[in-house]
Amino acid sequence: MKKYRILITNDDSVEAPGIRKLIALMRQLGDVIVMAPDKPQSGMGHAITVSSPLRMRLLHKEHGYEEYSCSGTPVDCIKIAEKTVIKGKPDLIVSGINHGSNASINVVYSGTIAAAIEGCIEGINSIGFSLDDYSWSADFSHVDEYILKICREVLEKGLPKDTCLNVNIPAQNGSPVKGMMLCRQARASWVESFDARKDPHNKDYYWLTGVFHSDDLAEDTDQWALKNNFVAIVPLHFDLTAHHHLKTLHTYDWKI
Amino acid sequence: MKKYRILITNDDSVEAPGIRKLIALMRQLGDVIVMAPDKPQSGMGHAITVSSPLRMRLLHKEHGYEEYSCSGTPVDCIKIAEKTVIKGKPDLIVSGINHGSNASINVVYSGTIAAAIEGCIEGINSIGFSLDDYSWSADFSHVDEYILKICREVLEKGLPKDTCLNVNIPAQNGSPVKGMMLCRQARASWVESFDARKDPHNKDYYWLTGVFHSDDLAEDTDQWALKNNFVAIVPLHFDLTAHHHLKTLHTYDWKI
User: Fold this and answer.
1) Quick check: A119 and A93 in contact, CB under 8 A?
2) How far is CA B188 from each of CA A165, A254, B154, B252, rounded to the nearest angstrom?
3) Contact A206/B56, CB-based, under 8 Å?
4) Is the separation of the CB atoms in B33 and B4 below 8 Å?
5) Cα distances (Å, whole numbers) of residue A129 to A165, B44, B53, B193, B221
6) CB-CB: which of A46, A48, A76 is closest to B46?
7) B103 to chain A nearest CA, in Å?
8) Strand, helix or coil at A224?
9) A78 touches chain B (CB under 8 A)
């Protein structure tokens, strides 16, 4: 049997319980290299570090397992692991398990998902995993069979070209998960507000806060799946072209 | 005639020549609010600031014009401008003019384009503008008529739902621009390398560098348009679902 090489990252930092769980699971499937941020990098989207250098630290090394932290973003982690540690392409990239849902519009803001998309851009089978529970002490006890099944299926069959998976798992709520469901990304947005405060020097500062809002109630979305206790699997791509609107836009006047 | 309200941001910082040009142009079309990063934020993708507070500074105010800098990312700038300054939705968001192309895969990494996508998520007509010239002293003298034409067309007709525009303008090269072209995002990636160095304390650090690579030579892409001296207009959306691969993925075994 082929020995798989699996690269793991996340955005909650190398110390997060979610990535520790993912490491334990992936070690059942192959050799593992971990390259994860040395501090939380939530909400970093597809950010890369271009104006300052990166640092890397070897935290642990044994046969079939290497663990590093990196000062950069999740996308930086993918790039630096490939180029300086693996010096080639792993068979699989997994990112997470994120503490908190990355369903719907959250894909756009998520460093965890950006890392999977980055792998996909580079032609590597990549999957982002998230649990619909923001707590640091979230219960990950029900996730094993779903994550292992998805990874085995992807390692065996490969993903379609230029496609990665965004997998969201319902929070542990006492009821058994009903199964896995292929979905599309629900249409939603965050309705933000800014909490304005004064610092001790009487200067203004602002905290970003927000409430998730969706009026996309269709039954083929990741939001619907999560709400109904299914594991939601959304295939993602990185062609942001709104192909379906090219025709309409051709009716506009673009002549000078 | 309706007086338009236009919000401007970028990722090269409020001091960049590109945004100064865009401000001058937009003041011909309506009232302008600028909320731009107080330092360069290139490569920030769709990052938002969740773990630290934001600062904002009023730099200039006169009738029909307000200019602020913000300590956050381009996406933060859009959010904070809407919620704390405009307290509503502007008629148009423009981001840029970026120093350097945001064609092809660069949309994924660009803070400039992320700001336009953020506006789009919030239902506002939004456009990202970039010049295919990375220099701080880039020549913007040929861009006026294209930017004004596109903005007038969008203000008049509106954009299709959940769509924004990614506009890339050829560098000034002595030849007249041939016109404007609606395109799709070219398939490409960056081939990275890391420049490993030792700091004065003999510790390793790494600079991310990369070379743009595309083998998508079709004539309907933004890369082709730029290379052939056309202004490239790509409509973007934020549904990352790879709808065209859902069918294939239904043939995989997702049963536990």
Assistant:
1) yes
2) 20, 26, 28, 28
3) yes
4) no
5) 8, 22, 28, 27, 32
6) A46
7) 11
8) helix
9) no
Write down the CATH superfamily of domain B4-189+217-250.
Survival protein SurE-like phosphatase/nucleotidase (3.40.1210.10)
| Cα B3 to Cα B29, B30, B31, B124, B146, distances in angstroms | 8, 6, 7, 16, 21
- What SS3 state is found at A185? coil
pTM over the 0.90 mark: yes
Residues of A in contact with B203 (CB under 8 A): 55
Residues contacting residue B66 through CB under 8 Å, at least 6 positions apart: B32, B33, B34, B58, B60, B85
Structural domain spans, chain B: 4-189+217-250
User: How many angstroms separate the CA atoms of A134 and B33, rounded?
Assistant: 36
Among the partner residues A76, A84, A236, nearest to B241 by beta-carbon distance: A236
Verify whether the Cβ–Cβ distance A49 to B40 is below 8 Å: no
Cα gap A30→A3, rounded to integer Å? 6
Q: Which of A208, A222, A233 to substitute to test the interface with B, most B CBs within 10 Å?
A: A208
Closest approach of A31 to chain B, Cα-based (Å): 24
Q: Which residues of B touch A43 (CB under 8 A)?
A: 47-51
SS3 A230: strand
CA A208 to the chain's CA centroid: 21
Q: Would you give per-residue pLDDT tens digits along chain A (256 residues)?
A: 678 999 999 999 999 999 999 999 999 999 999 999 999 998 999 999 988 999 999 999 999 999 999 999 999 999 999 999 999 999 999 999 999 999 999 999 999 999 999 999 999 999 999 999 999 999 999 999 999 999 999 999 999 999 999 999 999 999 999 999 999 999 998 998 999 999 999 999 999 999 999 889 999 999 999 999 999 999 999 999 999 999 999 999 999 8
Residue whose C-alpha is closest to residue A98's, from A50, A55, A43 = A43
CATH class of the domain defined by A4-188+217-239: alpha beta
- Give contacts of A 182-241 with B, CB under 8 A: 182, 184-185, 187, 189, 192-194, 196-197, 203-208, 233-241
**Shortest Cα–Cα distance, B53 to chain A (Å):** 5
Interface of B with A in 8-47 (CB under 8 A): 40, 42-47
Nearest CA in chain B to A155: B252
In the Cβ-directed half-sphere of A131, how many Cα atoms lie within 13 Å? 30
Pair of tokens at residue A82:
């490939």
Which of B48, B112, B117, B231 is most worth mutating to test chain A (most A CB atoms within 10 A of its CB)?
Answer: B48
How many angstroms separate the CA atoms of B60 and B69, rounded? 10
Q: Please report the ipTM that was assigned to this predicted complex.
A: 0.94
